[in-house]
Amino acid sequence: xxxxTPYDRQANFSNExxxxxxxxxxxxxxxxxxxxxxxxxxxxxxxxALIQRDDGRLxxxxxxxxxxxxxxxxxFTLRGGWTAPENYVAGDGVTYDSVFYRxxxxxxxxxxxxxxxxxxxxxxxxxxxxxxxxxxxxxxVTDAKLRNSVGVSVIGRSANSVGTPTDIAxxxxxxxxxxxxxxxxxxxxxxxxxxxxxVTTAKIADGALSADATGWAKMTDGFVTTAKIADGALSGDATGWAKMSDGFVTTAKxxxxxxxADADGRAKLADKLVTFAKLVDxxxxxxxxxxxxxxxxxxxxxxSDIRTLIATATxxxxxxxxxxxxxxxxxxxxxSPSSASGVGQLVPVGTAASNxxxxxxxxxxxxFVSGFNASTGAYASGIAATVGAGGSALVAPAANVTWVGxxxxxx
Length: 411
Fold this sequence. Notes:
By secondary structure, the protein is of the alpha+beta class. The protein is 18% helix and 22% strand. It has 10 helices and 18 strands. The protein has helices spanning 13-19, 27-51, 70-74, 132-135, 213-216, 238-241, 263-266, 303-310, 313-319, 324-331, and strands at residues 77-81, 87-88, 92-96, 99-103, 107-108, 122-127, 153-156, 166-169, 176-180, 183-187, 287-289, 299-301, 346-350, 357-358, 364-373, 379-389, 393-395, 401-409. It has a 4-stranded mixed beta sheet with strand order 1-3-4-6. It has a 4-stranded antiparallel beta sheet with strand order 13-18-15-16, with no helix packed on it. A two-stranded antiparallel ribbon has the order 2-5. Strand 9 and strand 10 (183-187) form a beta hairpin. The model has no long low-confidence stretch (mean pLDDT 82).
């Protein structure tokens, strides 16, 4: 039924009585007004009868789903699944983990402050956790229907117990998902995560075992034995060398005695690899060389062999010299510096300002002096170094220059 006709008064009887106090009220106007009032009341009562029972309550079947507000249909204004960040006002409703919640206060949602852990912000209205599986067909939940997750994460159960799935996040790069300490976590791949003998030669990158403390620590001392290296396995080309970083195999990594002194053992050594420490012991007074004509194996040389090889009078005299003086005589070398007079005498030099210096008398001298400004001490006039006879000039005078050095008698 249409809405009742509104009553619209047409006559003003108070004004009419004021204007005509002795006259009669016009009956036609009264009838018209009462008729309009009756029509509006009758239509209102007819409409009211459609929704009201005789006992004053709402008529049966008069209120349907369309007549309810959204907030009345579930007890709140449904905003859908809970998300963050999102502005919610008091009375807003959300779903989270099969539970309906109603916002108690207006607030901005934050990741981690979900309705199930914030009782001051959300009130649980209805829990459908146990009912939801019965109403959801198998394989009907798509990825889009799942809740939002934090970045770089998977949804699962980290703890070793039955419970609600959570986000398992990778906190940094180069982490793998693994069970560790009875929990599911993202972490670096540690040694205990690999099965024994899982890493084969093919899995080791060329040069991956570096020639430093980090690389050497991957091998225990004496680990590489002769028997473990196949003949020709480490080829003498780029392919073979690339399997080992420079300097990777240290002395400590080769087991004592495993490089045998036979063809098999020598085959493990590259040319020029053997150092002095690896040579056989030699007797006292013997050196290694070769006295036999032509190229060949190294031999032991005695002092006599060495004198024969030198084959010069000077060389032999030097080798058999009884003391340092005899050795210097063999080489015609001057005596060692000394404060005593004669050959080897060493005389300090320190002149007064503006004076030169002459060698002491007698013999042959070698001198060395540096010039300094007598007033400031600054380096001046260079240096002088020369051999001269006793009494001859080592350096000439220079204005305000003092000379410092020494003179050594060499003959």
